[in-house]
Write a structure and sequence with these properties.
The protein is α/β, with parallel strands linked by helices and about 210 residues long. The chain has six helices and eight strands, in the order βαβαββββααααββ. The strands form two sheets. Strands 2-1-3-6-5 form a five-stranded mixed β-sheet, sandwiched between helices. A three-stranded mixed β-sheet has the order 4-8-7.
Length: about 210
Amino acid sequence: MIHLPTTTLVALSGIGYRTDKMVNALNYSQKGIKFGAVKYIQLGEIKDIDSWSKSTIYNLPKYIETEYCLLIHENGQIVNPQEWQNKWLEYDYMGAPWPLPNEFDKVSYRDENGEIQRVGNSVSLRSKKLMDLVATREWKPYYGFWNEDGFICCHNRKWLESKGCKFAPLSVAKYFGRELDIPENMDVDKPFTFHYNRIRPGRNIEFKHLL
């Protein structure tokens, strides 16, 4: 049994998320791991993914009393608990790697300075420090998008780093999570978490072969 007393396993209600599936994901993610707390948070009226993202930024920190939280979804959870690494707690944000944007895409995965960032994803390990800090930032779209992981890992990344927050590099994060098959993670047979992105199903991978 892995003990993570400083981490809260958490799931948030939201548009399209079914309570029964969220509870199943929470239960499945506790196999082999004892967390400091486990919470399913009802966010109230969520009209769309944009309002869900905003609520995640500003409301999630209010419910977390431990030093970290591990945010999961009904379609993204822990699949290989034995792959947990304690060194991940050295970082303030750990999520699945992002792919490189194509040569014509000049906006995706870019931080305030225009640099491409390779690690993000909403299914993630986050420090309370980072969550409290980013909740002080103005909520606004970037390139027409409101994604909460992009808000943290791209658009406020340099500011967060200036406040002492550490983001996991791709070489570390590829062992934590998988959303897409990309060249950099093909040597990892069993990632700790898996996130099926319903928005990009054609680029996703099958869940079962990662178990």
